[in-house]
Amino acid sequence: MKTKLFYFAQFLGFIILFYVLSLASVAGIIFPFAFSMFFALAWANQKVWILSPAYLIGSICAYPTLQNAICALATVLVLVLPYYIHIMCKKGMKKWELFVYLAISQSASITFQVLGGLNPILIVVNMITALLFCYVAISFFEPLLLRKSAFKFSNFEIVCSAILLVAFSAGLDNFYFYNFSFLKLFACFIILVFNYIAGARMGILVSSIMALGTLISSNNPIYFAPLILWALFAGVFSTKYRIFSVAGVIVAELICGFYFNTYYSYGIIECLPVLISSLIFFFLPSKWYQEVKILFTSNSQNLAVKNLINRNREILHRRLDNLSEVFFEMNSVFKRLIKSEMSPEQVKEMLYNEIRSTICKNCSEEKHCHRTFSADTKKVFEEMITIALEKGRITILDLPSYLVSRCGKGNMLISEINTLTSQYRNYSQLVGNVDTSKLLISDQLSGVAGLMRELASEVEPILTFDNSKEDKLIDELAFNNIACTDAVVYDKDARTMVVSLIVRDEDVEKTRLQSVVSKICGSKMAIFESYPSSRAGLTTVNLKTAPRFDCIFGIALQNKSGSSLSGDCHSIERLDGDKFMFAICDGMGSGGEAHDKAETAIGLVENFYKAGFDNEIILSSVNKLLNLEKDEMFSTIDICVVDLKSGIADFVKMGATSSFVRREDGCEILESGALPIGVIQEAKPLIKKVVLSEKDFIVISSDGVNDAFGSDKDYRDFLLTIKTTNPQEYAQAIVDKALANNNGYAVDDMTCLVVKIF
Fold this sequence. Notes:
The chain contains 26 helices and 16 strands.
C-alpha cells in the first residue's frame, strides 16, 4: 500500500513539474525545458511508466491544443520505444544516444514551427538550449537521486541546481489562479527555508536566482525587488525562533504591495501566497529542517568524523604501545626460563658419580679403587663415558686392560655406562627441544611486540585531511560524468597520499577516475582496493600514491632427470606497503620428501612475511621450528624483498646460492652465505641491501642452476649475453643454458626466478 501511495505521489509531482516547465520559456518564444527534463529524469533511473503519462498530462494541461498533444505524444514515443528496445536487447543506452533521441523527439514540434513561420535560427537555439538543459538536469538529478541527502552538493551541482531553479521560476511566473501567484507561494517558502538553514547570504542568492527566472520568462523585472526584499527582511530578523523571519517576510511583502505599489494591482488575493507559505514554514517540524540542513553542513559533520578518527588513532597508538611493552616483558621472562646446558666436564662428573654409587658402592675393592687409585680410576671411567657419548655405546673392547685385570664387574660396568649415557642423551635432547620451544616462543613474543610497536608508530601521526582537494575531486569527477557522493583525502606518510571515494558501481572501471584523481592530487595515483559501500549501487574506491617503481617477473622450472616431483619450491607474494617477496626454497635432495620439506619451509616464510615480521625473526623462527623435527633434512632459503617505493631490495639467504642483479652497465654478484635452514638452532641469515634502478633484472635460482655454470663468474658472463627484456624469456634462457651445460641432463632440480624493475 505504501509503495502504491509513493508512486501516486511521485506521479502527481511529475505532473506539476512538467506542467510548470511547459509554461517556462525564454522571452515567451523558446520552450526547451519540459521535454528535456523528461529525458533527463528517464536517464536518472526514474520509472518511465510513471514519467510518460505525467509528461503527457502536464504538457497538454499547460497548452490544451491538438498540435501540442501531437508534439507531446511524439516526444513520449521517441523515448519509450528505444528505451524498451535497449532493455530487450540487454544493451545499456549511451548518453550520446539519449541526446540523439531527444533531438529526434522534436521532429513533430519542429515541423509545426516551420509551418508556422518561426525563424530557423530560433528553432536551432531552442534545440541547443534543450540539449544543454538536459545535460544540466542529468548532472544534477543523477547523483542526487543516487545518494539522496547523504552528502553535500558539489560546486558544479550547485550551479546546475541554480539553472534548474531559474527554469522552474520562469514557469511559475506564468502560473496564476485568479491573481493567486504560485511563484510567490513557492519563492517565499524557499527563501525562508534557505535563510533558516544556510544563512541570510544564501537566502539573498536564492531569491536573486528566482527573480532572474521571472526576468528571462517575461522580460519584466517586477519580481526582483520583492523577492530580494523578502530575503533581506528574513535575514535581518532571523533568529532561532522562526516566527521573526516569518514576520519579516510578511512586513516586506506589505511594504512592496501597499507602500511602493510594486505590483500592477494588490489586494488580499495577491498577499495570500506569502501568508500561506509563511504559515507552512512556521508549522513544519524542526526535524525536517535538520535533514535538509545536512546538504549544507556536511563539511562540519565530516570535520567531526575526521576529528573522531584522529582521536581513535591516538587511543589505538597508546594501547598498541603499552601492549608491545607487555610482550617485550614476556619475551624476557621466557628467555630467563631457558636452562643453560651443562659443560662436558660437568656431564662426565655427574655420570661418574652415578656409576660409582651404583656399581662400585657394594664392591669389596671400592675403597682400594676410589681412594688408593682414585685419580687413575676416575680418568678411566671418564674416558669410557666419553667413548659412550660419542659412539652411542661401549663394548668389552673399550675397557682398558688396567681395569679388566682389576675389576670383576666389567660387564655390569659396560651395561650401566651404556644405560646412563643413553638416558642422558634422551634427556639432553628433551631439554634442548624444550629450550628451543621456549626460545621460539620468546622470538615470537619479541616479533609480536615489534609488530605492535610498528603499528603504534603508523597510527601515531595525526591525519591531515585536505578539504580543498576533496571538493575539487567531487566537482571534477562530476564534470567527467563520474558521480562521487563523498571524497576523503589525507596524507598517510611523507610519501603516500590516500584518497577514498564513494562512486557508482559502473564508474569504478572508468579510466578517467584515476586520471582525474592524479590530476587533482598532483601525483600519479593508483587504485589499491575497492569494495561495496553500505548503500546499494555504490562502491568505495581507495587510491594511493603510486610507488616509484613496479615490477614484472618470470619463472622457469625443470625437475631433476628421472624425478616426477621437484624438491624446489618458490613463492611470489605482494606484501603491504608496496613490497614484493620473491623466494626459492631448495629441499635437500629431490623427490617427495625434499619437496615436502621445502614446501613447509616456504609456507612458513610466506606467512611470516605476510604477517609483517622482521627478516631475522622470520628465519630464526622457521629455523628453530624445522630444527625440532630432527630428521636430518635441510633446506636452503633464498629470499628477495623488493620495496617498490624506495627501490631497495633486501636479499636474505640461508645456505642459498649466489644471486645476481643485472644492470644496464654490468652485473652484480650477491654471494651465498649462512648455513641451510634447520641445521643448527642459532643459524643466522645473511642479509644484504641493494639499491635498484630502472631496467634492472634480479636473478635468483636454486643450486641445480648455479652448479651447472661451474662458477659465479661464468654465470654472470652468460647473463650479460642475454638480450631479451621479457623476464619470462630471460628465466627460460638461463634454465636452457644450464641444461645445455650438462648435455641436456638435469643433475638436480632447477628453479630460476627473474624480476624486472621498471
